[in-house]
Amino acid sequence: MSHPKVVIIGAGSLFFGRQALFSMIDSPSLSQGTLTYVDTNPDRLAAMMTLGKRAIAHAKSQLKLEGATDRTEVLKGADFVVLSFANDGVGHRGIDCSIALRHGIRMCSGDTIGPGGVFRAMRELPVILDIAKDIERLCPEAWVVNYVNPTAIHGIGLRRFAPKLKSFALCDSLHMPNLQRTYMRMASVEVTPANEADFELTIAGVNHFTWVLGSTFKGKDVSEDIRRSLKDEAAKETAADLAKVRFNARYALQLWDVFGCAPACITHTKEYVRYWQGHNIENDGIPPLGIFETKARQKMHDKMWSDIAAFNSGERPMAEFFTSMYTDPATDVIAAMWSGSKLPYYINTDNNGAVGNLPDDAFLELLCDVDMNGPRPRRAKHMPTGLRGLQMQVLDAHELTAEGVARSDRELLLRALCTDPLVNSIADARSMLDAVMIEARNALPPTWFQAKASAALG
Q1: 327 CB neighbour count, 10 Å cutoff
Q2: What are the mean pLDDT values of the chain's consecutive 10-residue runs (458 residues total)?
Q3: Residue 166 to residue 132: CA distance in whole angstroms
Q4: Cβ of 58: how many Cβ atoms within 10 Å?
Q5: Which residues contact 224 (CB under 8 A, 6 or more apart)?
Q6: Domain range enclosing 309
Q7: 427 belongs to a structural domain
């Protein structure tokens, strides 16, 4: 088999550009392939290209590096196209969360559910579908890997509106084998290869709304051991943490008490439910969700670019780059597909009977076997009654959002917001759509200001 060509659209991504470089150099099955960076910002592209050349030289790697601001110049011959971009993700998420807060909705992340999820899809999904047209024309056999939030909405959009392409979606929240090892430690199981083989973890659900449906070690249920670990963590939590991680163990324990199983991605799941929106009359001892901290998040991005500048100038030695980076789900999955390693990974794809009491076409995050034929979900347990209904509500909101964005249909987006678990008022939903059209106008595609969208705004 020839060596793979991996095209990354969004080279300057905080969560992927650098990690992909590290992972491809480090991976035996990818290190002789081609890594192609695409970024519409020429300065950021130049910085990533310099970093890539220095890293390759330091490692004496055979990895080939390409770069372009125009994706159509480099898509030809791609085996994988990874979508990992954002239109001023931090700034616009701040706007989204402020609009939501004015309407009584508290969002600590604001990029996958609630008004923030709908608004981000309005910005990003039209670009994804335009990219899909170029892929279909220039490299129709490539696997398209969506890494852009809201992951499930965009994954549904690709499946429904670019059905000829081979696609799936990924998220870093359930990264294997790190995820399994984390739960092993929580269950007081020593992390060894033999123990990993005897530790079974069953997780399923919509991305960022996944649940631990089973956990056993050598056939014995270890859920209570995991619960004790969560309780220990809850006792140490303080209000000093950023909103996304604040009081997560306490939120997780409350959900476990009600639904009988633990949320697997509480950093986001706590935002998918209405229980900590501040509307409760009785005090349950946990403050409402914190709000997305735009300035703090921007500092994280600024630090990334200052680190890259330091590596590129020689202020920091390249050896530190390799000790500071870590493998990434997308490149891990690509390596497994290309090499046929038979390692399983959590992938967002069609259910196809994995969770027996959810529809076959439900777009879920599931443990999958992977090769160049794509992901094949392993059988999971049924979704508990109650959670099954919440899953369907989220799926319906996501599907309506994908269809509304793809069709530039404001009324479908209104229906999506009114289906969303966080929206309490039809009038608020209308008002929020009007607000995002005004406050984030320059970030939205022109189609939103034609036909139905412009008519709605008068």
Answers
A1: 16
A2: 90 84 94 96 95 97 97 98 88 93 96 96 96 98 97 98 97 94 97 96 98 97 97 90 92 96 97 94 86 90 92 96 91 95 96 98 98 97 97 98 95 97 96 89 72 39
A3: 10
A4: 15
A5: none
A6: 5-174+302-342
A7: no
**Is residue 445 in some structural domain?**
no
Q: Tell me the CB-side half-sphere exposure of residue 184, using CA atoms within 13 A.
A: 20
Residue whose structure tokens are 């990874």? 82
Residues 289 and 271: their CA atoms lie apart, in Å, by: 8
Phi, psi (rounded to 5 degrees) for 424: -110, -5
Give which of 106, 96, 109 is closest to 424, Cα–Cα. 106
Detail the DSSP E strand segments found in 26-137: 34-38, 64-68, 80-83
Q: How many domains, the chain?
A: 1
369: part of which helix (H) or strand (E)? Answer: strand 363-371
Query: Is there a domain that residue 281 lies in?
Result: no
CATH number of the domain bearing residue 150: 3.90.1820.10
| Residue 197 zone, left/alpha/beta (φ > 0; ψ -120 to 50; rest) | alpha
Q: Would you call 227 exposed, middle or buried from its count of C-beta atoms within 10 A (0-12, 13-18, 19+)?
A: middle
Alpha carbons 421 and 209: distance in angstroms, whole number = 12
Question: Hey, which bits of 48-138 come out as E strands?
Answer: 64-68, 80-83
Burial profile 405-418: b = 16 or more Cβ within 10 angstroms, e = fewer: bbebbbebbbbbbb
Q: What's the pTM?
A: 0.94
Distance separating the N- and C-terminal Cα atoms of the chain: 57
In the chain, the amino acid numbered 252 is A
Per the CB < 8 A criterion, the answer to whether 27 and 62 are in contact is: no
Both tokens of residue 458?
Answer: 């008068």
Tokens of 257: 């008490």
**349 domain residue, yes or no:** no
Q: Rounded to the nearest 10 degrees, how much is the dihedral formed by the CA atoms of 438, 439, 444, 446? A: 30
